[in-house]
């Protein structure tokens, strides 16, 4: 498993500019589904290392970024390709569903 980097609002533009595929996992410590998804997301991050950048954002600590990306439900997984939001998945998902959505962008 791979420990996910916590993305701050100030770093978001840099994530867009790096190109390729990126995933932002919006979560909060009080969100049960978020906590249950974290090991799954970390596992996917390890398997896709070098192919996709996967980061997490605590929506409570970075509300401006959550608002900018129209995150209303947690967890929300925002999938970005070459600087543009191309997909989003919401809620508790099977690993294959989330990983498939990410890999579809390669």
Structure description:
Helix content is 35%, strand content 27%. It is of the alpha/beta class. A five-stranded mixed sheet has the order 1-3-2-4-5, with helices on one face. The longest helix is centred in the middle third of the chain and has 16 residues, at 32-47.
* Helix-residue proportion: 25-40%
User: What is the rounded distance between the termini?
Assistant: 21 Å
Overall shape: globular
Q: Which spans of ≥5 residues are poorly predicted at pLDDT below 50?
A: none
Which class best fits the helix and strand makeup?
alpha/beta
Give the count of helical stretches: 4
Query: Whole-number average pLDDT?
Result: 96
What's the number of extended β-strand segments?
A: 5
Radius of gyration over C-alpha positions, nearest whole angstrom: 12 Å
Strand order of the largest sheet: 1-3-2-4-5
Order of helices and strands: EHEHEHEEH
* Strand content range: 25-35%
User: The biggest beta sheet, please?
Assistant: 5 strands, mixed
Oligomer classification? single chain
What is the fold's blueprint, element by element?
Layout: E1 5-6, H1 12-17, E2 21-27, H2 32-47, E3 52-58, H3 63-68, E4 76-81, E5 84-90, H4 95-103
Parallel strand pairs: 1-3, 2-3
Antiparallel strand pairs: 2-4, 4-5
């Amino acid at each position: 498993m791979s420990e996910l980097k916590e993305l701050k609002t100030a770093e978001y533009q840099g994530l867009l500019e790096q190109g390729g595929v990126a995933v932002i996992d919006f979560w909060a410590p009080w969100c049960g589904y978020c906590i249950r998804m974290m090991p799954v997301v970390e596992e996917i991050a390890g398997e896709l290392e070098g192919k996709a950048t996967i980061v997490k954002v605590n929506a409570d600590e970075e509300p401006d970024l959550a608002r900018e990306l129209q995150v209303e439900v947690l967890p929300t997984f925002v999938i970005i390709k070459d600087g543009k939001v191309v997909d989003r998945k919401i809620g508790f998902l099977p690993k294959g569903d989330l990983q498939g959505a990410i890999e579809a962008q390669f």
